[in-house]
Amino acid sequence: MWVVLSLISAVLLGFYDIFKKQTVVGNAIIPVLFYSTLVSGLLFVPFIVTSWLRPELFDGNFWSHFYVEPLTAKQHLLIAGKTAMILVSWMFSYSAMKHLPITVVGPVNQLRPAISLILLFIIFQEHLLWTQWLGVALALVSFYLMNRSGKLEGIQFVRDKWVYMLLASAVLVALSGVYDKFLLSKETISPATIQAWYTIYDFLMMAVMLLFIWSPQKAKQPFEWRWGIVAMAVFVTIADVIYLSGLNQEAAVIVLIPLILYGVRLVVSFVYGALFFKEKNIRSKIIPLLMVLAALVFMCL
Predict the structure, then answer these.
(1) 52 membership: H or E segment, kind and range
(2) What is the pLDDT of residue 35?
């Protein structure tokens, strides 16, 4: 079942990337994130309120998966920490998505498993198998090849600040993946509870940023409402709940979830960018794309 959940989550995240690209191009990023988090928060408010007032409604039925359990102050702080980490990652990712082709963003984003392994080796001194080192090497070679392809579009990876933002986002997302497992296993917080409070804290933090950062300079950063904001929020919220549900299953093979999640997500966004966004130099990007997919396979062996 966890494989099916991971596949569904990956497809939804692929379309989330597509809506994100459509929404941020030529648009102010902070209000896009604000309204997106508002929609996500509104999706969970009924479950939070009902769980508090009528918890018996969630007993022994389908809706038990959406029960938002009571938390301690410490657990609220831990989820708020996760939220801040993801929010900074989003700011980097959205800024990069706004200025880079999605057929470049997708393969670079999928370096996250390689970054995760490198972090585990450096910080926690974990032993990596030769297949994992091979996967990391393939990921780095694919990044080099994507750099060569990017030059055809005037993108210099070494000098491009948007590429550095994309890499910073990838590092933060890799760290948040470890954090998610900690919240699920060590703190035994349910997936629905994590996602519900995460969306609430996300909205509150974005409201502060909207008020104090974007509003004073909104004349320089105009915002245009687009319905893709709603679609983006719905897709990522459902995808996250499904992902956490799969991650929380005892039978889940944790190392295979990134392969499914990143691989399918990458293919969906890349194909859409090539067919519908009519992005350039697709042939030169196919080899790096295949190398990223191969890297994912070796890292998960």
Answers:
(1) helix 29-53
(2) 95
pLDDT (0 to 100) of residue 229: 93
Range of weakest confidence among 4-18, 117-131, 200-214, 266-280: 117-131
Number of domains, the chain: 1
Per the structure, the complete domain to which residue 30 belongs is given by 2-300
Task: Count the Cβ atoms, other than its own, within 10 Å of residue 289.
Answer: 23
Spatial neighbors of 79 by CB under 8 A, at least 6 apart, are: 71, 183, 189, 194, 197, 198, 201
CB 52 within 8 A of CB 196: no
CB atoms near residue 179 (< 10 Å): 17
Helix (H, G, I), strand (E, B) or coil at 69: coil
d(CA 207, CA 182): 28
Please give the torsion angle defined by the CA atoms of residues 212, 214, 215 and 220, in that order, rounded to the nearest 10 degrees: 140
What pLDDT digit, counting tens, does each position of 167-185 carry?
A: 898 888 878 877 887 888 7
pTM of the model: 0.78
Contact 274, 26 (CB under 8 A): no
Residues 209, 214: Cα–Cα separation, whole Å: 7
In the predicted structure, residue 120 carries a pLDDT above the cut 70: no
Residue that is written with structure tokens 């190392």 in the block: 255
* Cα–Cα distance list, 290 to 50, 201, 263 (Å): 46, 37, 10
The pLDDT confidence band at residue 141, using thresholds 50, 70 and 90, is confident
Q: What is the DSSP string of 59-96?
A: TTSGGGGG------HHHHHHHHHHHHHHHHHHHHHHHH
